[in-house]
Amino acid sequence: MKKKNMMALAVAAALGLGVLPPAADAVSTRDIEQKRGEIDALRSKRSEVQEQISEAQKNIEALQSQQKQVANDIEKLNMAIEETSGKIRNVSVDIDQTEQAIDELKQEIAEIQERIEKRNEILKERLRSLQESGGTISYLQVLLGAQSFSDFIDRMSAVTTIMEADQQIIREQEADKALKEKKEAELTEKRNKLQADLQELKQLQSKLAGQLEQKNRLMADLKQREEEEHDHKMALEEEKELIAKQEAAVKQQLAELERQKRAEEAAKQRARTYTWSDSGEASSGETPSGGSTPPVSSGAFTRPANGPITSGFGYRFGGTDFHPGVDIGKRAAVVPVVAAADGIVFRSYYSSSYGNVIFISHVINGQTYTTVYAHLEARLVGEGQHVRKGQVIGYMGNTGHSTGPHLHFELHRGGWNEAKTNAVNPLDYIPF
């Protein structure tokens, strides 16, 4: 009986030790603290991105406020242009009426001129008569030449009539000349003033049109800046969501490490069987049909898909564009994509740039890595799912900003960020 009990204890101890990971893989307090540090860093980064989102929203609101003010200015300018155009129409009508009045005045002036010329003929006739008489006839001589008193009275009346007629002719001549000059001066002055007013209004209209064009350009610029700010805000919100997913994945990893740590300590303390199961992991035993999967290589990472590398890591196009990963070309109708290492899917969605994309977080020898699989035709894993190295997670495609069917694959030593500062060359880690 005692021998059986000893045997049972030995078996129990053997089973208890058997479920522990190798010594090199044992969970340490340092591993746990490192995960907590990663969570704090991600939380801080998420808070920083949220501040940037708030700042972007403020910029959007400021731009919208400026657009509202510019819209008011444009409305005022349009009203001013409309009012000026009305004044131009009115002045143009006045000018037309003045021109018509000038034409009528020309007719009046012609009549006045005709009267003046007729009087000139009368005066010339008087002068001619005077010359024919030798220039000696005068009103006094006419009176003194009377033969009788009655003749004197008649001559006096005639002379008076002639004198008054001559004076009337002269007065009328002077009045017509003055009237002609006055009317000509008035209409000329009025026409000149109207022409000046019209020119001034046209200059004002041109100035207002220039201001309106400037305001319209400013409005277009403000709308463009608002659109860019909206795009920036959307990118930040997407980054924030990715960070939140990363944080959730790291928290899940931390919980797993803590669970393993407790399991190790319990196994050591109690020296009894402890059944460990990872219920959250997805099965990796089967490979979906539809093409060959790359062989799973030894080491930390394996190749994510079959096919030639069509674009490498680093700067390209003459140093104007940084490529944070490698592109694997599609050379079959259906090309499966596999997880490069064990890990947790913390983001699986459709991105405007990446298309169908999967983000996986890995912890290898205490170091966090992130892999990205972009432009997929289809995704087979969801967020929060555990995947195994070599497990099919999707199929190569041509979604998002893609110039042809391929897999864009990124490897980051640490967490993923928008600037991709943690990106490393996958060829330095994976045997392609």
Automatic annotation (TrEMBL):
Record's keyword annotation contains NADP: no
Region spans: Disordered: 261-304
Ranges annotated as biased composition (Low complexity): 279-300
CDD domains: M23_peptidase
Regions annotated as coiled coil: 32-133
Boundaries of every M23ase beta-sheet core domain copy: 322-415
Residues annotated as domain Peptidoglycan hydrolase PcsB coiled-coil: 109-183
Keywords linked to the UniProt accession: Coiled coil, Signal
Keyword Signal: yes
Signal peptide start and end residues: 1-26
Pfam families documented for this protein: CC_PcsB (PF24568), Peptidase_M23 (PF01551)
Official protein name in the record: Peptidase M23B
Organism lineage: Bacteria, Bacillati, Bacillota, Bacilli, Bacillales
